[in-house]
Amino acid sequence: MGEVVVLAVSAVLLAGFYAAMAYGLGLIYGVLRIVNLAHGGIIMASAYVTWQLFDRFAIDPFLAIPIVLVVFFAIGVGIYLGLVRFLPRGPAGAVQSLLLLFGVWLVIRNVAYLLFTGNEQVIHTGYATSSVRILGGSFSATRLAVFAVATVALFTLHLLLTRTYLGKAIRAVAQNPDSCTLAGINVERIYVFTFGLGTALAGLAGTLASTLFAFNPSFGASELLKSFVIIVLGGLGSIVGIALGALVLAFAEVFAVYAVPPYLTTAVGFVLLVVVLVLRPGGLFGQRVLR
Amino acid sequence: MLEVRDIDVFYGDAQALYGVGFTVAEGELVTLVGANGAGKTTILRAVAGIRPVARGDLLFEGEPLRRVPAHRRPGLGIALVPEGRELWPQLTVRENLELGAYDRAARARAAESFAHVYDLFPKLKDRAGQLAGSMSGGEQQMVAIGRALMSRPRLLMMDEPSLGLAPLVVGQMFAAVRRLHADGLTILLVEQNLARALKVADRGYVIETGTVSLTGTSEQLLADPAVRAAYLGV
């Protein structure tokens, strides 16, 4: 019994990170109808930026978050204005956008190999080995901090999308961009902002990941795939959908230890994805549009 | 207030408008009538800026419009209630209306505009928290008109506001149009229901295959034998 509780808490903690990781991908897809294949590359790049800030300037990863958000928002705006903007809109641009952003990922990855080699990097903070006891289990302080940051980020995002004119305009553009123009909303500007915001969120996920895992320039591939699983499970709709998708994936992965050997737990998410796509193509929790 | 001079509009290689010209004076209710596909919707979309104009000029209060991007035109006082309503179905009625006042000047007067819209359509006040997509067709049309009014337009363009609505609701819609006109709002109305449109309008233009074929006051058009034969079936 005690073990189940510990696994459950650990799944919830993991889900917080997963939700923050998936949200950037879901937001960009919901508004621009583009699958940002560079998402994993951004996560990896941000892990390296965080590591460099820590290694060279002794900036704690969690204190580096504001810097990372600003830097990756700017990078996202740059990618949009320099590349994505020129794609044909709608279904015609779907294949091009996949190729383009996959190319961006390859470039980011190879730049990272060039600058930092393929060696695994780890960020050793002073508190990396500290732990906190919850419900009879011992959990690392870093994982708790990651969960807290992810939760605050998602809550802030929720307030932005539901309480501000800008956020409501983002949701409106996701639902019907043409009538946004008629209402006086500069749709192109919403696209730029959304791409920047989605990229900044991927950056945040990279920083959080860098405190949890070792990484090399190929890091981010399974993060992209898991993000994809989560937005499909959650149905792309709202923060709640993403959070539920992340919970389902995290619980499935964590509790899979009872059923499959440890090296197969990553596969659990994809089995889940296939099952859901076959049985409930709209996602476990409905809603295909950003609400 | 609005002057359209000889505009040509294309969809790809296909020309939709051939030298269309007309005017709308301040306080007038002008209607564009004609058959399906004649180009009425295209005219409104050109004035709203979401359909580029290849030749000719658009003047709003004497100022040329062609270089003004579409999303800036609501700020000038031009609003379009598009055909088929085009609401944001997963936003609430209140949010739909709120975003109608996105322009900075309109946002500052949003409270006043809400009062005006709720006064015109009291039903929307009761349904403010409901998702727009869950409303009936008539209620959605009210939201669409309300959203356009939230931008504090001086020229309100409406594209087929009665399309697909039950006869009783059509009556309510025309009553609202009449009331807005009586309050002094300048209105450009596109309708397939020619008899009904001419009954509320001051003047009308008959659009046929992308050109203005006939113009006159509503009485003149209603009395015109060609109009009666072609559109009223008498």
TrEMBL record, chain A:
| Recorded topology in the membrane | Multi-pass membrane protein
Say yes or no: keyword Transport present. yes
UniProt keywords (A-Z) are: Amino-acid transport, Cell membrane, Membrane, Transmembrane, Transmembrane helix, Transport
| Highest taxon above the source species | Bacteria
Q: Which residues cross the membrane?
A: 34-51, 63-83, 95-116, 137-161, 190-215, 227-252, 258-279
Q: Which Pfam families match?
A: BPD_transp_2
CDD domains in the record, alphabetically? TM_PBP1_LivH_like
The entry's localization annotation reads: Cell membrane
Span of the signal peptide: none
Family as reported in the entry's similarity comment: Belongs to the binding-protein-dependent transport system permease family. LivHM subfamily.
Protein name as it appears in the record = Branched-chain amino acid ABC transporter permease
UniProt organism field: Paractinoplanes durhamensis
UniProtKB/TrEMBL annotation, chain B:
* Keywords, alphabetical: Amino-acid transport, ATP-binding, Nucleotide-binding, Transport
Residues covered by the ABC transporter domain? 2-234
Highest taxon of the lineage = Bacteria
Under PROSITE patterns, the record lists: ABC_TRANSPORTER_1 (PS00211), ABC_TRANSPORTER_2 (PS50893)
This protein is called ABC transporter ATP-binding protein
Q: Name one Pfam family in it.
A: ABC_tran
**Family under the similarity heading:** Belongs to the ABC transporter superfamily.
Q: One MF term from GO for this chain?
A: ATP binding
